[in-house]
Design goal:
- This protein is mainly β and about 210 residues long.
- It has one domain: Ribonuclease Z/Hydroxyacylglutathione hydrolase-like (Metallo-beta-lactamase, Chain A, 4-Layer Sandwich).
- About 10% of the residues lie in helices and about 35% in strands.
- It is built from three helices and 14 strands.
Length: about 210
């Protein structure tokens, strides 16, 4: 059984026997609670303060991944896909790593702070995705319209929006509303965490929204 839990912004905790944490923040720097977890594996999409606070979620033996090299840690396949934080080849905000990883036969893709549309090569590297974590808040990343365009191309089973304005968040980004206004799929409000197994994956795409 896998458990998915949101720690706000782009920070997710995915756990079965091993805990994977994505893009940790320290809480106070962005105005929301700090993550309350420790990762066996910590994935960092890029080196900005609201995504790279590994010390907030580290424990003894934590393995921190900050590059796109393909690897297998604790039987979890992880590969990074190089991308950019803006639409100008990284000139404004630098590089971004998309992480594709498989836990308990469920494939996850975390787009980090993706700032542009995906090309054919990137889409091929991503491949089939069960659960997609996608930024939707605009300004620093893709916005709602761009997000839906990318979702159409990846065609995940479960779409999980992230990196949007929530209560307390001090970053000037859009709320989730513009994204949800364009949603044509079943919407599930799952609270802060949810358990899932491979057999639970839906036949038709679903949008899952989390709360802190």
């Amino acid at each position: 059984m896998l458990q998915i839990r949101w720690h706000g912004h782009a920070c997710w905790e995915i756990t079965n026997d091993i805990t994977v944490v994505t893009d940790p923040h320290d809480g106070k720097s962005i105005g929301i609670p700090a993550p309350s977890t420790a990762g066996d594996i910590i994935l960092v999409s890029h080196d900005h303060y609201d995504h790279n606070s590994t010390k907030s979620v580290e424990k003894e033996g934590s393995k921190v991944v900050t590059d796109s090299r393909k690897r297998n840690i604790e039987n979890i396949e992880i590969k990074g896909i190089d991308s950019f934080h803006d639409e100008c080849g990284g000139e404004k905000r630098g590089k971004n790593i998309i992480y594709k990883f498989i836990i308990g036969e469920v494939s996850f893709c975390h787009l980090g702070d993706l700032g542009h549309d995906l090309n054919e090569g990137q889409l091929q590297q991503i491949g089939d995705v069960d659960i997609l974590f996608i930024p939707v808040g605009g300004t620093f990343t893709i916005d709602a319209v761009q997000a839906w365009n990318i979702i159409e191309k990846i065609q995940p089973k479960i779409i999980v929006p992230m990196h949007y304005k929530i209560g307390g968040l001090s970053l000037p980004i859009a709320s989730i509303d513009p994204f949800l206004e364009k949603n044509k799929h079943r919407l599930f409000k799952v609270g802060n965490e949810i358990d899932i197994e491979k057999e639970d994956l839906p036949a038709e795409p679903e949008v899952w929204t989390f709360t802190l």
